[in-house]
Amino acid sequence: MIRMSDVSVRAGAFRLSGVDLLVPSGQYAVLMGKTGSGKSTLLEAICGLKPIAQGRIELNGVDVSGMGPALRCVGYVPQDGALFSTMSVRDNLAFALEIRHMPNRAVEARVGEIAELLGLSDLLHRAIPGLSGGERQRVALGRALAFQPPVLLLDEPLSAVDEDTRENLCRLLKSVQQTTNTTVLHVTHNRAEAERLAAVRFHIADGRVDALPSPTVCGSTTNTVR
Amino acid sequence: MEAPAAQPAAPALTHPSRGRIRFSDKAFHVILGAVCCVYVGLILLLLLGDTLYMLQHTSDRPSGASWLLHNPIAQALAKPEIQNSIVLSMISCTVSAFLALWIAVPVGYLLARTRFRGKQLVDAVLDIPIVLPPLVVGLSLLILFQFAPFTTPLGAILPFSTPWDHVSLNALVVYQVPAVILAQFMVATAFATRTMKATFDQIDVRREQVALTLGCSRFQAFSRVVLPEAGSGMLTAWTLAWARSLGEFGPLLIFAGATRNKTEVLSTSVFLELSIGNIEAAVAVSLIMVLGALIVLIVARVWGRSDLIL
Predict the structure, then answer these.
(1) Which of A49, A170, B37, B117 has the highest local Cβ count within 10 Å?
(2) Does CATH number 3.40.1190.20 belong to domain B80-308?
(3) A110 to chain B: which residues are within 8 Å by CB?
């Protein structure tokens, strides 16, 4: 569950204020808005990369407002993937597990599992610079999911891929979310993408976030927003 | 009702002539190429002049003597003081380049990634060794070492005992080998820091941020994600620092002196050979330095980041 209560964030001259947002546990939420409307800033505030000026952010009932990004246990996939280019695909997937000092055998098992889920098994020994756009996004997704975070934040993950790849990745995102039962907040400006994936939809404009009528049963009107 | 005044007819649009544009473009490229050729040509002529001078004096060898043994470079290399100078140059340049990197990496990262009060001032101060005349750097070092605690015996400063308790830092450093390294380090570090800042500026900050969300501390994100990506930039900074150290002369002359077989490095050798009128040896040592600098530049271009070379 992601809950933001009366959150204000400042980024230079830009300001988001009084944001209330609720994404129930295990739901796929999509946040839409124009370029420069503050979508990415909101995600950065949730994962702790951008400090909030006021308000409260809760993840699965825990107040994480004062916590650093490392302690929030949030999977984060930025727009361009931001893969670690000096590492192999396998090392990218294993990164969060090795940071947590997991035993080697457990790391290998989890990497194998996540690679299979995302269709990366044949790419494990590949270097990052040779990967296609779609492969990069799958690796970034796998890297974020490897440590089984309860919350996954996706910042326009499909904006830099072609139409076919986008279609495949949409299917993959939906099935991964259902398999892992992760709470997802996906930022996009693509309406078709939002309608395809979202159980809960939000719209951000002029520094405010509003809930949109949900296209499916999952997005009940409990998602109150200012 | 008055009829509106007739508007003056707009001048007919004239299109630029195709011939004139073509001529202008061609002339523009010719001028750029000519300016570049003049300067590149001047650099190559300098090296060619040194080489020709050496070959000219090689032809003076006794009849039947081997060319390999009777050329100014071989003769310079055979002198024990030049051999010592080469060894000291290699050691001091390598040590000062490593020391420069130890400072340049954290300072470059700090400047590239953080904002703090007085950052502009720190940034400007870091350029002082680059813009100061080299002699002034040497003189400033020499003057600094005339003050306490550099003039205080080590036994009075250090909380533990050393074999140099009765000696001051001034006596241990000034006109000694450490002065060579310190003088080289002062200037080399400024260049290495600029290179490392440019390296960190070019590494996407998003990767570090993702590493933080994956559970890293700031230091883990720096050491596991940023440093490996900065590898080629670090090599460039190291080689630049090494090459700057090799070419250092002014601060060395003032702060370390030019004592044969003691604080003599290759640049001092050129000066000493010139001062005794041995121009062949001075040119030969210069060519040895050119060779060293070329090797370092090639290493920097092949394995480093050519876009970061200052």
Answers:
(1) A49
(2) no
(3) none
B219 has a chain A CB within 8 A of its CB: no
- A223 occurs within a structural domain: no
> Is B206 in Cβ contact with A80 (below 8 Å)?
yes
Mode of pairing for the β-strands spanning A208-212 and A62-63: unpaired
Q: Quick check: B213 and A143 CB within 8 A?
A: no
Taking alpha carbons only, the member of A47, A38, A46 closest to residue A10 is A38
Please name every residue paired with A62 in a beta bridge, in sequence order, or none if there are none.
A59
E strand or H helix that includes residue B228: helix B227-229
Within an 8 Å CB–CB cutoff, is residue A110 touching chain B? no
CB atoms within 10 A of CB B59: 9
pLDDT in tens, chain A (226 residues): 899 999 999 877 778 888 889 999 989 999 998 888 888 899 999 999 999 999 999 998 899 998 999 999 999 999 888 999 999 999 999 999 999 999 999 999 999 999 998 889 999 999 999 898 889 999 999 999 999 999 999 998 888 778 878 888 888 888 888 888 899 999 988 888 888 888 889 998 887 888 887 654 433 333 333 3
Work out how many CB contacts closer than 8 A connect A with B: 64
> Nearest to residue B170, comparing CAs of B142, B137, B139?
B142
**Rounded to a whole number, what is the distance in Å from the CA of B205 to chain A's nearest CA?**
9
Phi and psi (nearest 5°) for A186? -115, 120
Residue A217 forms part of a structural domain: no
The three-point CA angle A157-A158-A162 to 5° equals: 150
Domain ranges of chain B: 80-308
Helix, coil or strand: residue B153: strand
- Closest-CA residue of chain B to A140: B210
Closest chain B residue by Cα to residue A153: B213
Residue A221 maps to a domain: no
- B214/A143 Cβ within 8 A: yes
Select the residue of A48, A73, A82 nearest B207 (Cβ to Cβ): A82
